[in-house]
Predict the 3D structure of the following.
Amino acid sequence: MQRIFRLITRVAPTDSTVLVVGESGTGKELVARALHLQSRRSAGPFVPVNCGALPETLIESELFGYARGAFTGAQAPRAGLIEEAEGGTLFLDEIGETPLPTQVKLLRFLENNEVRRLGENETRLVDVRVIAATNKDLQAEVRAGRFREDLFYRLNVVTIEVPPLRERREDIGLLATYFLERVARKLGRPGVRFAPATTEVLESYDYPGNVRELENAVEHAATLAEGTAITPADLPPAMLVPRMLPETGSAAVLGEEPVPERPAESGQPPVGARETWSLADVEREHIQRVLLRHRGNTTQAARQLGISRTTLWRKMREYGIKRKSR
Ligand SMILES: Nc1ncnc2c1ncn2[C@@H]1O[C@H](COP(=O)(O)OP(=O)(O)O)[C@@H](O)[C@H]1O
Ligand SMILES: [Mg+2]
């Protein structure tokens, strides 16, 4: 994130169009707002538009405005969001979802800084900086014929890529602490903190919903926690279900990354891609995680695993798993 903030500082003062790319929940809107606040337009408005949320006719009247009588129900003329962003920044969110006919009109606006309200003939000159965001691969959308190439190049003057949270794990601890302090203040519960086992779960989770998911998880956990220490059991259940295979774990399969040999009888699963694990490795890791989730309570762990307590004890002995309650 530090790297991105340095980039923002450099790009913000220029008036150039910026394309912010990243998965949902990575902080694209936050980046757009930071660009606005650090620009010479900061005193002007920041106007966000979700280009994917509305059908073609509605998004066009939203963006470009309309004249009185332009369509049924247009009783009074209205300025569109582009005009409302005068002197400020227009944030086109989910730009990859924009209907093709609207893309043509957007391109025209970007090229001559002019808008024409629906049902009007004259155009109006506007002074607006555009920042667009997408969670799609726009180049792939261009190849698939769903996104206009000319608009892509017009938007893609400067690109800021916001990586998924799982690819910048060093941010997790900082963000979690920040969100916790914020929610603790809101709940009036100073002193609430993460138990070490909880930090471990937080830092090893994959966050398909990125920072937004982490933010919600911390709020959820802080709300549920009974004492001052947040335990793994306070986290949303989805975070405690281990993912058996990494989503994009193909590097090791392709042999690009050396996979260490499994150390015999070490009691720990091998490091590296899970594709090379044996069933016993997976079973051992799963049992460990379930025990952690139930804070070492074997009765509850056995119930979740669907085995008897005696079987669980036998497996723990076999795998050398110690019963620690953290
Ligand atoms: N670096 C960050 N610091 C603090 N909060 C963040 C950070 N990145 C994202 N967030 C928060 O995560 C949530 C999702 O961010 P948002 O900008 O809406 O993501 P996107 O637009 O990519 O879906 C928001 O509540 C935002 O405030
Ligand atoms: Mg968003």
Remarks:
- The radius of gyration is 26 Å.
- The pocket of magnesium ion (ligand 2) is lined by residues 28-29, 93 (CB under 6 Å).
- The first strand starts at residue 18 and ends at 21.
- Residues 244-266 have pLDDT under 50 and may be disordered.
